Automatic annotation (TrEMBL):
GO cellular component: spliceosomal complex
Alphabetic keyword roster: mRNA processing, mRNA splicing, Nucleus, Spliceosome
Function: Involved in pre-mRNA splicing.
Protein name as annotated: Pre-mRNA-processing protein 45
Species, as recorded: Candidozyma auris
Origin: domain of life: Eukaryota
Biased segments, Basic residues type: 167-176
UniProt subcellular location: Nucleus
Stretches the record annotates as Disordered: 1-21, 144-193, 269-316
Length: 316
């Protein structure tokens, strides 16, 4: 009833409005009370008039509207029905497709959508082809009389799909399969049982190398010899203690010389940096003193001369 008071839709043309919301063909009365020339109350005297009741214009209203609407001319007609009849059954709130008890609302919506789509297709010149259901009977090629082998009847229905819907299947970027795991390296294990003596024989403290021992482990020469020979040492093998002592002395001497050279080199670099810093300071002092002397040598003009006044203006 109040749809005519709403503004026009934003993205809709006049032709679409005519199709979706057709105007009714019936005539409605624009006025509730209209004076009619054919029906006029007869003049009566003051004593005959019933002042407690108004004049009845029902016939005039019905005649003017063509008897297509009810005449509302009394005060009782302005009272809402919910107030006038508290037990009146109404259809508000209206049912939706989810909570409707029967399929009447769904059938109405489908029929309305079909009519609107048909009208739009006729207006645009693209009629929708409705695919009919197809019934297919399938009989497997078997001579057995089992219930599963007798055949089936399938009804094929074609539904219209929205082209703007997102894809139903997820597309993977990497379609290749994962590589197979590397084959295991199989080798025959030792059947001998490892004893404590063998473990102790192969127990070597962890060191970085034979030449640098940062953590300060004390490793015996026997252990080093066993590790260098692969874990087996000859029974009659002997260690040349003199040669090892000479090697240790040579290594200590080389380390001491390297430390002394590094110390001398660092001292030379420090002295050179100090000399460069002193030279920079001397040059800076000479430059400052030269500029000071040049300023003092400038002759200052007289106080009463024009040159002094112009000098003041420039300095200001």
């Amino acid at each position: 009833m109040f749809s005519s008071l709403l503004p026009k839709p934003k993205h809709t043309t006049h032709e679409t409005i005519k199709i979706v919301l057709p105007k009714p063909q019936t005539k409605k009365s624009e006025a509730l009370i209209v004076q009619s020339k054919q029906f006029e109350p007869e003049p009566k005297t003051i004593s005959e008039l019933k002042l407690s009741k108004p004049l009845d214009y029902t016939k005039s209203v019905l005649q003017q509207s063509g008897a297509l609407a009810n005449a509302q001319i009394a005060y009782e007609d302005t009272i809402p029905l919910k107030t006038k009849y508290p037990n009146l059954k109404h259809h508000f709130p209206r049912y939706s497709l989810e909570n409707c008890p029967d399929s009447s609302l769904k059938d109405c919506v489908d029929a309305t959508r079909e009519v609107i789509e048909k009208l739009l297709a006729q207006e645009q010149g693209t009629e929708i082809e409705v695919a009919q259901d197809e019934i297919v009977s399938y009989i497997p090629p078997s001579l057995e009389n089992h219930e599963e082998q007798r055949g089936r009847t399938v009804q094929v229905t074609t539904h219209q799909e929205d082209p703007m819907l997102p894809p139903k299947h997820k597309l993977r970027k990497n379609r290749h399969k994962d590589p197979s795991p590397p084959p295991p390296l199989l080798k025959k294990g030792t059947t001998e049982r490892i004893t404590k003596e063998v473990k102790d024989k192969w127990a070597i403290p962890s060191v970085v190398s034979n030449w640098s021992n940062n953590k300060g482990f004390s490793i015996s020469l026997r252990k080093r010899q066993e590790a260098a020979s692969g874990g087996t040492v000859a029974e009659n093998s002997s260690i040349n203690i003199e040669k090892f002592s000479l090697l240790a002395l040579a290594l200590d001497d080389a380390d001491r010389r390297a430390r002394e050279e590094l110390k001398v080199r660092n001292e030379e670099r420090r002295l050179q940096a100090q000399a460069e810093q002193k030279e920079k300071e001397r040059r800076f002092e000479e430059l400052v003193s030269r500029k000071r002397n040049e300023r003092q040598q400038l002759k200052r003009p007289g106080d009463n001369s024009d040159e002094f006044r112009s000098y003041k203006k420039r300095s200001a």
